[in-house]
Amino acid sequence: MHMTELSSRRAMLALALVGVALVPRPGLANLPDKVQAAIDKLRAGRAAQQGRVTLRLPAIAENGNTVPMSVMVESPMTSADHVKAIHVFATGNPTPEIAVFHLTPAMGRATVDTRIRLGQTQDVVAFAEMADGSLHMARAEVKVTIGGCGG
Amino acid sequence: MSSPIGQPRLRLPAQVKAGDIIEIRTLITHVMETGQRRTPEGQEIPRDIIKRFEVRFEGALVFAMDLAPAISANPYIAFPFKAERAGRFEMTWTNDAGETRSTNAELKLG
Prior knowledge:
The complex is a heterodimer of chains A (about 150) and B (about 110).
Chain A: H1 2-17, H2 33-43, E1 48-50, E2 53-56, E3 60-63, E4 67-73, E5 83-90, E6 97-103, E7 110-116, E8 122-130, E9 135-146
Parallel strand pairs in A: 1-9, 3-9
Antiparallel strand pairs in A: 2-4, 4-7, 5-6, 5-8, 8-9
Chain B: E1 8-11, E2 21-28, E3 50-57, E4 60-67, E5 76-82, E6 87-95, E7 100-107
Antiparallel strand pairs in B: 1-2, 2-5, 3-4, 3-6, 6-7
């Protein structure tokens, strides 16, 4: 497991050196190992493009126990071209996963809303997985005044 | 020993016309115990969350969500739906123990 993470990180570094940026910075730079592993598992070698995804979170959350989050993805939501899933990760919580939303064309629009817990100031990363298998992403920082994972 | 899954609350718009994209808001009472906390005596409090939410319209799955402990207590979930015809929604929340709570709602077109 450790070796795999290391080698995939080396592979990304090598790609960056030859000028093939998998994702523009600050997209997926400087993530904790377990977050990187969760994201690598989702990506399964696919590039994640910036854009099309809007991740709406407050810049400052006074209470990390309940932080309102909206994810909007530009998509016609037709059977040929729709968002299949939205995966949301926390970069500074005890576990990286926040939620996976499974969408269908019956929704008409690719927007989801919920409330999340953030244990400390951190970035949240959202990936939209399209019907054609492509990935789009957005990243947002939330400054947390009172952490919400309660130990 | 799981915490009870409380009464689901739903909100659909009152006036819906065919072709409208409506927003459906849901809330369910649940502790969403993260598994990260300890009692004052130092004993781990086991994880106990709603881990899955599913929405069916006339029997077909239209939206679902996998929840992690990072979803706040009393999960609030809102999502859109394109109203093409009248029909019945069935929404189901499932906890870690596999227990479920369901509710129905009628979509009427004006």
